[in-house]
Design a protein that fits this description.
The protein has strands spanning about 5, 10-15, 20-25, 35-40, 45-50, 60, 70-75, 80-85, 90-100, 110, 115-120. Strands 2, 4, 5, 6, 9, 10 and 11 form a seven-stranded mixed beta sheet that branches. It has a four-stranded antiparallel beta sheet with strand order 1-3-8-7, with no helix packed on it. The protein is built from no helices and eleven strands. By secondary structure, it is mainly β.
Length: about 120
């Protein structure tokens, strides 16, 4: 069993930056690939980024490519999402998830409760 807790969300102006963190407990994160997903009001949850268990592979949604960076520190059991050049359309609740290396939410086993990001124009 893995418990995931996200932090780092908040209110930021367009063009600004935020760094989200996801800390795991219960089992070591190095056993899992990790993903970030987001859900905007009235919309379905969508894939943002994923990183393999070793950190050697990453994938990104086209909408965030070049602006967001996913990384991990297995020694700290933590995964990060650095978000730069934020846009109002990035406003959403952001979730981290543990599971296989995949952009498909249904394949992930464990989920955090989410952290809210609001980007003002």
């Amino acid at each position: 069993q893995v418990q995931l807790v996200e932090s780092g969300g908040g209110l930021v102006q367009a063009g600004g930056s935020l760094r989200l963190s996801c800390i795991a407990s219960g089992r070591t994160l190095s056993s899992y690939s990790m993903g970030w997903f987001r859900q905007a009001p009235g919309k379905e949850r969508e894939f943002v980024a994923a990183i393999s268990w070793s950190g050697s592979r990453t994938i990104y949604a086209d909408s965030v490519k070049g602006r967001f960076t996913i990384s991990r520190d297995n020694a700290k059991n933590t995964v990060y999402l650095q978000m730069n050049s934020l846009k109002p359309e990035d406003t959403a609740v952001y979730y981290c998830a543990a599971g296989p290396y995949s952009p498909r939410a249904r394949e992930y086993e464990y989920w955090g409760q989410g952290t809210s990001v609001t980007v003002s124009s």
